Amino acid sequence: MPATYLASAVASIFVEQDDIPRIFIHNDASELYLTYTALIIVSLLPSLMMRGVRIRPAQLLVQRDIKILMTFASIGAWYSVLYQLRYALQALTLGAASVRDALNVDGEYLLPDSPLTTLAVGISSFYLVYIFLFFTAVANKMGRWLVASMLVGSVSYTVSSLAFAARDGLVFLLLATVFAYPFFTDDLSRAQRRIVKALGGACIIASAFLLASLTLDRFGAGSSWSVSSGTLGYLGQQPFVFVETIRAQVDFYGLSLRFPVIANLFGGSGDVQRTEVFEWSFGTFLKDYYSMYGWPSLVGLALAGGLVFAALFRKRSGIPPVTLLLVVILYFQLMTAGVFYFRLGTRGGNLYLVAYFFLIAISYFRYRSPGRNV
Description:
The chain has helices at 2-14, 30-50, 57-60, 64-94, 96-106, 115-124, 127-139, 144-154, 156-162, 168-180, 190-218, 224-236, 238-248, 255-258, 260-265, 284-293, 295-314, 321-338, 347-367. The protein is mainly alpha-helical. It has one domain. Helix 9 runs antiparallel to helix 10 (168-180) and helix 10 (168-180) runs antiparallel to helix 18. The protein is globular, with a radius of gyration of 21 Å. The mean pLDDT is 87.
């Protein structure tokens, strides 16, 4: 996790105004850049405590109720991918540039606005859980159907992101796989490791091809300068977008911006119409926090997130290993996507969080053992 933010920080050193022409680089805002850095560090502190967590998911996730859960998860995986696949193919046919322009400028989505879409997108948010279940199914030889279904669920968010002509799903898939694999190295046979590595190599090649295609289409139709600038901006624009947001944000969107489901419960519309380029540009999760209520929401949410996860990872006594694993997965997912934006801020993402917290609660009360340490 820290590596992604380090890569962004290094890339930002080389970003010039011409690389992000629609975002103004403020050279007179050193205090805001320091604030940005400090809040990122606070948010990453739990990752240091997380290194002491020793869990072997392949041995934990073999209870009968987990197998039942995987059966239902299989149905969800196939539904999510098959539902979104035609829209992903349509986006690739139309071209990334036209799809992103329609999305950012006109607010037009290829995916229809319906409960079925919300369900499909929400299921795809579980992609990291699916990756862990995939390795578990392989290690425990649970059968081809479960292995194939968990693999389909693992790529579900990648398919979902392609429906928006977005590149982050490809990046997250690779990062999540690299994150999950070490948890299973002691439980996979040599033959299984070879198969997983071969499958991973194929995914890397396919992802690299799609990333290159999307980048070429969105930035300059093949111009090497535009492509390099677009890639550099993709990795390094975050601090500049954050500062631009602080300087230029006039209207704040409240809970509707990233917690529309909660906004609906309190009578809000949950709908937001953003008109400025910096509002839909990558500025990390911190930019989204600020755009809700300003400084109170920025500082409050950043500190709360960092402190809560740090406390959970440091004080692990009494937390069932399955529950702790779910918390680790959630933290990784939030922070990995957070280098770009608060990805779970859609209705589907909100429903995913509700379902995920429900899953954490069930695992805690189902598997807790007083006095047990991890």
